[in-house]
Design goal:
Helix content: 55-70%
Shape: globular
Radius of gyration: 15 Å
Number of strands: 0
Structural class: mainly alpha
Low-confidence stretches: none
């Protein structure tokens, strides 16, 4: 069976997340699009762009682990998606170590963090949430060695 094209992965991700919104109430697909575009702009591969479209699908319950295992996707895409899937209550050090150990995943996470920490995106949140998320993103960036 041939692998899904990038356009098919995008369409699938948009459909899977169609009813979800982000913390500010915006369509969640805007975040996925921004992360995929960030990966593209950072010189990421087609596999990394596909992983960007799917990076939150399993974690958010939009798609199951079983779906991912059976999906016609290259193994590196599946590995990146699983590396980027943070388990409920998982320690940040364990999570970031898995990202660092998975080829290609760091660039996707860097793009994800860049969009999540966008000041315009954070500005619409209440102060306690903004502060908590800003600190969390800074910690994750530090653990990943993204100090610039």
């Amino acid at each position: 069976m041939p692998h899904l094209t990038l356009a098919e992965v995008e369409a699938l991700a948009r459909e899977a997340h169609a009813t979800q919104t982000d913390k500010a109430g915006r369509p969640y697909t805007e975040h996925l699009s921004a992360v995929a575009e960030g990966v593209r702009a950072r010189g990421g591969s087609g596999e990394q762009i596909a992983a960007a479209w799917l990076h939150d699908a399993v974690e958010d319950g939009a798609l199951s682990r079983e779906w991912l295992a059976a999906a016609p996707l290259p193994r590196p895409v599946k590995d990146m998606v699983l590396a980027l899937t943070k388990a409920k209550g998982e320690d940040l050090r364990t999570y970031t170590a898995r990202i660092l150990a998975t080829p290609g995943a760091l660039l996707v996470k860097e793009s994800d963090l860049a969009h999540n920490a966008d000041p315009a995106r954070l500005a619409v949140l209440d102060e306690p949430t903004r502060t908590r998320l800003t600190e969390k993103y800074a910690t994750v960036r530090h653990l990943l060695g993204l100090t610039r």
